[in-house]
């Protein structure tokens, strides 16, 4: 038995030393262009350079992120198919969907957090609201007339938007999209008046005048939008919300490979140019060890369970 254990350990170690020997696929549960996709592509590009083997991004949107996560949960646990997802899929969806198609606590192993970003509450320029308080007053004065765009039901975008309405007393109709970029386009086109979207996804339109930013959801103002107040400054303390992005592997993936990927992500995001590349897009790099990330995800899952419960949202 001792010899068998030693052999198994050597095999696992040898496997990790040789990893990767071919293309690694990062499955993103959103369409191209959103925050999750942008972070995944930055990580994939830099891992490819480090590994000498290509890390590719495959977009599998739909089901509030569940379709992409489910596909990775069912993949071979060899480190060559990873889930490049966002917090809502792994911490919120279980409270909003009757059937995820996978168990976020058992079917996917945490590898590392990669980055985080705040949201912006924005409106089409034609909406006569120059501040969050003006929007709240406008919505309350016109019940049933306002709608807002975000990603699908159960995503962190959706929950954050619901939390904002809960805190401010607004009531708007939610219009869900597969990805943040798709909802953004409809708001810019004037089909939807209000957008709850990540800063990285919306920054170009805000700067070009396609959207009017009313507040950001971080505890501090964004360096990219320094003139835009936080939700607390704008009169909605308690509506703070951050989206975050990470990597997971199928359950059963060897410890050595999970550890290596985590260390390699930390390595490629450490240089100043990598941090600058992320910060220009509104992201803050935050790599963690697998254990740290697992504890973080558990804490977030418990937090959003309380939030969903307080909002009275039902499973669909």
Automatic annotation (TrEMBL):
Pfam families the record matches: TctC (PF03401)
Source organism: Bosea caraganae
Signal among keywords: yes
Record has Repressor as a keyword: no
Protein origin, superkingdom: Bacteria
Family to which this protein belongs: Belongs to the UPF0065 (bug) family.
Name assigned to this protein: Tripartite tricarboxylate transporter substrate binding protein
Gene3D superfamilies for this protein: Bordetella uptake gene, domain 1 (3.40.190.150), Periplasmic binding protein-like II (3.40.190.10)
InterPro entries: BUG, Bug_dom1
Keywords: Signal
Signal peptide: 1-16
């Amino acid at each position: 038995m001792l010899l068998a254990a030693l052999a198994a350990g050597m095999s696992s170690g040898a496997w990790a030393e040789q990893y990767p020997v071919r293309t690694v696929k990062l499955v993103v549960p959103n369409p191209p262009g959103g925050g999750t996709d942008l972070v995944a592509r930055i990580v994939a590009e830099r891992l490819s350079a480090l590994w000498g083997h290509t890390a590719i991004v495959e977009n599998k949107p739909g089901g509030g992120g569940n379709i992409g996560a489910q596909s990775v949960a069912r993949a071979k646990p060899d480190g060559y198919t990873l889930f490049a997802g966002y917090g809502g899929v792994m911490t919120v969806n279980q409270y909003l969907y009757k059937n995820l198609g996978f168990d976020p606590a058992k079917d996917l192993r945490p590898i590392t957090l990669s980055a985080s970003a705040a949201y912006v509450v924005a409106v089409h320029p034609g909406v006569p609201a120059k501040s969050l308080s003006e929007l709240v007053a406008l919505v309350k004065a016109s019940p049933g007339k306002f709608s807002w765009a975000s990603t699908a039901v159960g995503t962190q975008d959706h929950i954050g938007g619901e939390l904002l309405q809960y805190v401010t007393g607004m009531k708007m109709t939610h219009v869900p999209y597969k990805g943040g970029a798709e909802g953004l386009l409809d708001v810019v086109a004037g089909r939807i008046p209000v957008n709850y979207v990540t800063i990285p996804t919306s920054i170009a339109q805000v700067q070009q005048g396609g959207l009017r930013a009313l507040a950001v959801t971080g505890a501090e103002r964004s360096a990219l939008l320094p003139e835009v107040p936080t939700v607390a400054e704008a009169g909605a303390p308690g509506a703070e919300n951050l989206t975050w992005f990470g990597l997971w592997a199928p359950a059963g993936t060897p410890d050595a490979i999970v550890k290596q990927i985590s260390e390699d992500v930390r390595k490629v995001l450490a240089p100043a140019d990598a941090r600058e590349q992320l910060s220009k897009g509104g992201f803050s790099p935050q790599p963690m060890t697998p254990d740290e990330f697992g504890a973080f995800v558990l804490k977030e899952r418990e937090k959003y369970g309380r939030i969903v419960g307080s909002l009275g949202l039902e499973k669909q």
